[in-house]
From TrEMBL:
Keywords: Membrane, Transmembrane, Transmembrane helix. This is Tripartite tricarboxylate transporter permease. Residues 20-442 form the DUF112 domain. It comes from the Bacteria. The chain crosses the membrane at residues 20-39, 46-70, 107-132, 138-158, 170-191, 203-226, 321-340, 360-384, 396-429, 435-454, 466-489.
Length: 501
């Protein structure tokens, strides 16, 4: 009941004119960016990060959550209409969603995606309301050793489990950790990896890294390689933008199963919603094979409904894990965590105690965002598709200018623009050679946390490494870590064996 009372107070804050405005802005921006192939919510949040320093923390985080949710809605629109998913989380939706569009059911496919995303997001938001305070209380039992083990688990999971090449994922992670330690050491006061340059004494800003990697790197990549790749043919979306009773009953079990699969992945640092969307699609395909008249491959509505619900339920729980544990499960969540730290906010039990207005206002905004996204996506999907008509040179030139202005506004230093350019080139090279970006971002965000807690744990134990393995929570985290490594090795070996057959 305390959670419901706190949520009611949160609605009082979220429904203020200012915060309601930022919910709308976040949802519109997230959907607009998601519709454009190659751009995702992580890029949108990275671009907005420099300009939110002038906002109230509650307003900024509400807008970011709207962008996070809205990006998934937009990704699915393009996956269905042109068979081009905006992000990896929408790949599973292309298989049956685009088939539905080819069969003249594009409007019904878009309705299925929008309702599925709404159901998954709403159910996960309800669970977050009750689970987040419990997770925050649980995190109060964490000491330096537990936080170090948690960060280590996040590092290994995001760099090896969700990437095709564990080596590339780990190298990306190490690069992020290397960037994070540049600057003056907070404990000893000694400069580290500064090459003797005063410009590096303050380190390399996370804002510069995220904008350079996710925005400028994408611009350079598109200009150099992907510009002439072309788009698929747009499907017409004529017909009713809603589902009949039969279609709704057909999709409902898949929506619920997808939500059930996606929810647990919201608190596991496994790279976001890619894995649960594929798992839910695979489950529906296996169930469909048992039916007397299998529909998969012909535009099965369940094959679209399940991944959409799974993706959004994962995102909802991810925000809860971020607030309660400070654990980012994707690149977008990592950037939102960085924004919280820029505002001086530390996720966990103290966040719920010191700033309840912010926490519960943000949780209440999830429900509002789901309704807003359903309203702007169910009837207006065709209008969002018009964004594809923006010429690429204008679109990416605008992103470049906005990136440079945002970075310059944060420090008013030419050196920041040089760092932005260098990191943008690095991001381009990583994309070209298929190195994942999420491990780098998460390594840079969680790297200082891991280092600080490692030092605290060792100093409190007189330098004894045994302190890192003291306590039941630590043991459980390391067991999960070993399990994740074992699953990774098994999947790689299985994949190689299948390739040789």
């Amino acid at each position: 009941m305390d959670a419901l009372a706190s949520l009611a107070e949160g609605f009082g804050h979220a429904l203020s004119l200012q915060n309601l405005f930022w919910v709308l802005v976040g949802c519109f921006l997230g959907t607009a960016v998601g519709v454009l192939p190659g751009l995702g919510s992580s890029m949108a949040v990275a671009l907005l990060l420099p300009v939110t320093f002038a906002l109230d923390p509650t307003a900024a985080l509400i807008m970011f959550s709207g962008v996070y949710f809205g990006g998934l809605f937009g990704d699915s629109t393009m996956a269905i209409l042109i068979n081009t998913p905006g992000q990896a989380s929408a790949i599973a939706s292309t298989f049956e969603g685009h088939k539905m569009a080819q069969n003249g059911r594009a409007a019904q496919a878009l309705a299925t995606a929008a309702i599925g995303a709404f159901i998954g997001g709403m159910i996960s938001s309800i669970l977050v309301v009750f689970l987040a305070p419990m997770l925050a209380d649980f995190s109060a039992q964490f000491g330096p050793a537990e936080f170090f083990a948690l960060a280590l688990f996040a590092f290994v999971a995001t760099s090896s489990v969700v990437t095709d090449s564990a080596v590339k994922g780990l190298l990306s992670l190490m690069l992020g950790l290397a960037i994070a330690v540049v600057g003056i050491d907070g404990v000893t006061g000694a400069p580290r990896f500064t090459l003797g340059s005063p410009l590096l004494f303050d380190g390399i800003s996370l804002v510069t890294v995220t904008v350079g990697m996710l925005a400028l790197g994408e611009v350079i990549y598109v200009a150099a390689i992907a510009r002439h790749s072309g788009q698929g043919q747009m499907m017409r979306t004529s017909g009713r933008p809603w589902l009949s009773g039969k279609e709704f009953r057909e999709a409902l079990p898949a929506w619920l199963r997808g939500t059930a699969i996606g929810v647990p992945f919201g608190v596991v640092p496994a790279g976001g919603s890619e894995i649960p969307t594929f798992l839910s699609y695979g489950l529906e395909k296996r169930l469909d094979a048992r039916r007397p008249d299998p529909q998969f491959g012909k535009g099965a509505i369940r094959g679209l409904a399940a991944p959409e619900a799974a993706g959004n339920s994962t995102t909802g729980m991810a925000m809860g894990a971020l607030l309660a544990l400070g654990l980012p499960v994707s690149a977008t969540a990592a950037i939102i965590l960085a924004a919280m730290r820029q505002f001086g906010l530390q996720p966990g039990p103290l966040l719920f105690e010191k700033t309840p207005d912010l926490v519960w206002g943000l949780l209440a905004s999830f429900f509002i965002a789901m309704i807003v996204l359903l309203v702007i996506n169910l009837p207006f999907a065709r209008l969002w598709a018009k964004l594809l008509l923006i010429p690429e040179p204008y679109l990416y030139a605008g992103i470049t200018v906005f990136s440079a202005l945002g970075i310059y506004a944060t420090g008013a230093a030419i050196s920041d623009l040089l760092f932005l350019l260098g990191i943008g080139v690095l991001g381009f090279l990583m994309r070209t050679f298929d190195y994942p970006l999420a491990p780098l971002i998460i390594g840079m965000v969680l790297g200082p946390l891991a280092e600080t807690n490692l030092r605290d744990a060792l100093m409190s134990a007189g330098g004894s490494p045994a302190a890192l393995f003291d306590g039941p929570i630590v043991i459980v985290l390391y067991v999960l870590l070993l399990g994740a490594i074992g699953l990774t090795i098994r999947s790689k070996l299985t994949g190689k064996a299948g390739a040789h057959e």
